[in-house]
Design brief:
The chain is mostly helical. Helices cover 54% and strands 0% of the residues.
Length: 139
């Protein structure tokens, strides 16, 4: 079900909400409603938490890591952390959503590649995309 969301390799903000209707209903509607009901949050707290969560989800998918962005200060997961998960070479790592990177640490799914290796893999992806664009243009 969530595989539909992973058709996105190039980060863009509203890609955070690129999912099937079934996933949106089950996770975003029923899952969120149950979680908030069970948490005991007041309506005001629920509105604040939900607003920050949506903004954080959009921010994590935007593709930019801005040093003055307060949403990037909320934890280990930032744009770079989650973007690795959307790459073909990183799909089995960095699963965490919003504030829950502790699950990646517990389950051993934090990406263990060095910054240099990640940069090399991104560059390789850019070269392959350019080559593919040339073939499609000429084809």
């Amino acid at each position: 079900m969530h595989a539909h969301h992973h058709k996105i390799y190039i980060p863009y903000a509203f890609g955070a909400f690129y999912n099937t209707l079934t996933e949106a209903f089950l996770l975003d509607t029923i899952g969120t409603t149950l979680s908030l009901m069970l948490s005991g949050l007041t309506i005001r707290q629920t509105i604040c938490f939900s607003t920050i969560s949506v903004l954080k989800g959009v921010d994590d998918h935007c593709g930019y890591r801005l040093p003055w962005d307060p949403l990037q200060w909320l934890g280990e997961q930032d744009t770079r952390f989650h973007d690795v998960h959307h790459q073909a070479w990183g799909i089995k790592s960095n699963y965490s959503q919003l504030y829950t990177t502790f699950w990646d640490h517990i389950c051993g799914t934090v990406c263990d590649k060095s910054e240099e290796e990640i940069a090399r893999l991104y560059e390789k992806g850019k070269v392959m995309a350019r080559e593919r664009a040339v073939v499609e243009k000429d084809g």
